[in-house]
Structures are given as structure tokens and as C-alpha cells.
Specification:
Elements (H helix, E strand, L loop, with lengths): L6 H7 L25 H8 L14 H14 L3 E5 L2 H12 L5 E5 L4 H13 L3 E5 L5 H5 L6 E7 L11 H11 L3 E4 L4 H4 L9 E4 L14 E5 L12 H4 L10 H5 L3 H14 L5 H11 L2 H20 L4 E5 L9 H7 L6 E6 L2 H11 L4 E2 L9 E3 L11 H6 L7 E4 L5 H12 L3
Parallel strand pairs: 2-3, 2-4, 4-5, 5-6, 10-11
Antiparallel strand pairs: 1-7, 6-7, 8-9, 9-12, 11-12
Length: 425
């Protein structure tokens, strides 16, 4: 499908172009295996001389449709669907980094990603320096090392919903000569396209708003295809012969698809992070309503945030759509809407937060975020509990903080539920 269509049209129709007599709706190809007529045809696939599917651990037709759709929505040259959002970040890392390499990351990121970067990858010899994303440009740039391989941040941080200063981070990445990798899970490409603001690679946890129904685990990596890996000697895995493919050089063979080609045929091959056909089919189907859902999530959340800000039993509210928010001007610059996630602190500290959560009736306490149903979570005791108190504070997690994911129910019902719960303090 032509990429000059509006995003709404791409969400509905991109990725699957049936021929005469084929299914109008993308089918699920529930198979691990694909048949070929000759030994040479299959050999050519293994040598990367031709394109096609031969084993679902690397690629399969159902994921291919999702990958093509997300690449179109994001404005990238290609994409790789993965089993989870964590797998997407891991794939980027293993595609760009070796033991002894270094990453710079904003500190205000999802706790699971902070643990992946700060602890698990450190055990493999890949070190991460966490920086305050609102620190002066020179201070963040001072973290650059000769072995820095990429800079990572979230468009809207989870759960503190801080808005990234894209221009600043893009300048720092260019100064370092490394890709800027952005997690765009909360805005989705409907509300923000990071490639328009200097990002080179985007990851999503598709389990969140992309699927939008809490029904399919998954992640995706999308590459803009504009980073020059041959401009430095940092990325030898992409620019020098790969002995596992008879000396093939990815940048020479695949051009601006080099990152995607290596990520799929090398990292995916060896680590097996592929999204299942069923989850790929569900996610692709639900993407057809993404633009409608993100509009409702954002409008509902705006009204809920304004209600909470005026409530006598609420100490503070953090939502970038509020005019009182320090993120407000930056949100207007980079976002078409502020999505459905916010945080707030009820009176009474941690005990007050527990009372509010226990009293909710419509909103559910769930270890999930960003789907059609309104939900709440206490990050300090759940998603971020693996972090120390100091690490929690560095990511913006306070003891009383409640993460509220506003769904697409009628906003008056959501507000009424919060109001009756807050009266329990």
C-alpha cells in the first residue's frame, strides 16, 4: 500500500494486499514449516539470496503483515515482530552491542527495561549509564564513551509520563555518532512518530495500546533506515563479513535494510524471540481501530486528569495534557494527544493509595496498562519493586504514586468510580 495514505487508512489496510480470490481478512498461518520444490530454493533462503519463509522462529506470513503495517504507520523501512516488548529492546541491544559496549539511557523508563539494561545486560558485559532526561545537554553528553553504541529513551515515560525532548536527544546521539532508540509504546504512531523528530529506531510493546485489548503479548522493532553504520568502526557486526553467512556484509548486501536483515537472520535466529502467529494476527486486527481508540483514550484521560486535579483528596496529578504540568508545552510540540496513562498521589501516602485502589469498582487492579479497560497499579510494590528505593526515586516512583490507565468506557462512569474511591481516605 502507498505510504502517502493518511495514517488512519494505513491502520486499516496496510500490510495485507489480497489477490483475486484470496481472503479479504488476513488469515492466520498457523505453521512452523514451509514447503519448497527444490533443495536449491531452500538453500538460497538459508544463504539470504532470496526472500521467503522457511521456519517460523525467524519469520512467518502472519507476522510479516503486522511488520509491514507497523513499518508503514511509523514511517520506517522495515520491522521485526517479537514475543514481547522486552524482547524488542533485547533484539536492538544484541544487534548493536557486544560485551564491553556501553548504552546511555534516560533514567525515567519502565522498571522492567531499567532492570534489563542496568542489571541483566550488565552481567553480559554491556554497561548502561542512566541520565536525567531533563538534565542540560552538556551533562547528558558527558556520558558518551568511545564504546557507546546507542542512546535509549521513552517518548512518554512509564509510569511518570514525562515527555522526551527529542531535539536535545537527537543532537546528543548525532554528536556521539550512534542511533537514537525510542520506546514509543504509550503514544503509538497515532500520537507521535519519533522518526519525525530524529529517532533512528523505534520499539513498542505491542501488548499495550497497539493490541489495546490485553489479549496478545508482543513487541516490535521498527527501523527508519537512515543511520549510516559505515561512517564509523563501531558496528562491525553490520559492516564486516559475517562468518555464519559465508562472509556476507549486511550493509553491502541489504543497504538501508541492514539493521533489519541482521536483526532477523542473526539475532532472531540465535535467540528465538519471534511473535507467535496467533498474537501477530490479533495485534494486526486490533491495529485497525488504533486511531479511534487513541483519540478516546486521550480525551477521556484529559477529563479524568482535570477531575483529579480539582479533587480535595488528591495531592498531585501528573498528566502532560494539564496546563499546570511542566510537560505541557513539550507535549504540545511533540504529541497529537497525551494518551491514556497518568499518575496521581492521593492524600495519606502509601496507605491512602491502598485505600483508594481497594475501593475502586469499575477500575481494576491489574499488572497491565494501556488497554480498553480502565486499570490501576501501585508501581512501587509491583512493576518497580525489583529496584532499590534510590532507583525507584530516580525513575520518578513515589510511595503514594498510583498509575492510572484510562480506558475507553464512558468518561462519566470512570470519574464516578474514582470519586467514590477517593472518599474512602
Amino acid at each position: 500500500m502507498e505510504n502517502n495514505y493518511h495514517l488512519e487508512t494505513l491502520a486499516v489496510q496496510a500490510g495485507w494486499n489480497p489477490k483475486n480470490g484470496e481472503s479479504r481478512v488476513q488469515p492466520i498461518v498457523q505453521s512452523t514449516t514451509y514447503k519448497y520444490a527444490t533443495a536449491q530454493e531452500l538453500a538460497d533462503l538459508f544463504d539470504l539470496k532470496s526472500a521467503g519463509h522457511f521456519y517460523t522462529r525467524l519469520t512467518h506470513p502472519t507476522a510479516e503483515v503486522l511488520e509491514n503495517k507497523m513499518a508503514s504507520l511509523c514511517g520506517g523501512v522495515g520491522a521485526i515482530a517479537t514475543a514481547s516488548g522486552q524482547a524488542a529492546t533485547s533484539l536492538v541491544t544484541f544487534n548493536l552491542c557486544n560485551a564491553g559496549d556501553h548504552i546511555i539511557s534516560a533514567s525515567t523508563i519502565y522498571g522492567g527495561t531499567a532492570n534489563l539494561l542496568g542489571h541483566s545486560l550488565a552481567k553480559l558485559g554491556i554497561e548502561t549509564t542512566f541520565v536525567d532526561q531533563d538534565a542540560p545537554e552538556s551533562e547528558i553528553a558527558s556520558a558518551i564513551r568511545p564504546n557507546t553504541k546507542y542512546i535509549f529513551a521513552e517518548t512518554l515515560s512509564n509510569p511518570s509520563v514525562r515527555v522526551l525532548d527529542f531535539e536535545k536527544f537527537s543532537r546528543i546521539a548525532k554528536m556521539a555518532g550512534v542511533p537514537l532508540v525510542i520506546d514509543n509504546t504509550f503514544p503509538t504512531p497515532v500520537l507521535c512518530r519519533p522518526f519525525d523528530f530524529g529517532a533512528n529506531i523505534v520499539v513498542h510493546s505491542t501488548s499495550k495500546f497497539a493490541d489495546g485489548h490485553a489479549s496478545a503479548l508482543g513487541g516490535i522493532v521498527v527501523d527508519k533506515g537512515d543511520f549510516d553504520y559505515e561512517a564509523s568502526d563501531k558496528y562491525l557486526g553490520l559492516t564486516t563479513p559475517d562468518p555464519t553467512y559465508h562472509g556476507l556484509v549486511y550493509t553491502k548486501t541489504f543497504g538501508n535494510m541492514a539493521f533489519i536483515a541482521k536483526g532477523r537472520t542473526h539475532v532472531m535466529r540465535d535467540f528465538g524471540m519471534m511473535m507467535s502467529p496467533m498474537n501477530a494476527w490479533i495485534t494486526n486486527m486490533n491495529l485497525e481501530t488504533l486511531h479511534l481508540r487513541m483519540e478516546r483514550h486521550s480525551s477521556n484521560a484529559q477529563k479524568v486528569a482535570e477531575f483529579l486535579e480539582s479533587h480535595p483528596n488528591v495531592e498531585w496529578v501528573n498528566y502532560p495534557g494539564l496546563k499546570s504540568s511542566p510537560e505541557y508545552e513539550r507535549a504540545k510540540k511533540y504529541l497529537k494527544g497525551c494518551s491514556g496513562v497518568m499518575t496521581f498521589g492521593p492524600k495519606g501516602g502509601r496507605k491512602g493509595a491502598e485505600k483508594v485502589m481497594d475501593a475502586l469498582k469499575l477500575a481494576a487492579i491489574v499488572c497491565h496498562v494501556a488497554d480498553a479497560r480502565t486499570g490501576v497499579l501501585h508501581p512501587a510494590s509491583t512493576t518497580h519493586r525489583q529496584l532499590s528505593d534510590e532507583e525507584q526515586k530516580a525513575t520518578g516512583i513515589l510511595p503514594e504514586l498510583i498509575r492510572l490507565s484510562v480506558g475507553i468506557e464512558h468518561v462519566d462512569d470512570i470519574i464516578a468510580d474514582l470519586d467514590q474511591a477517593l472518599k474512602n481516605i
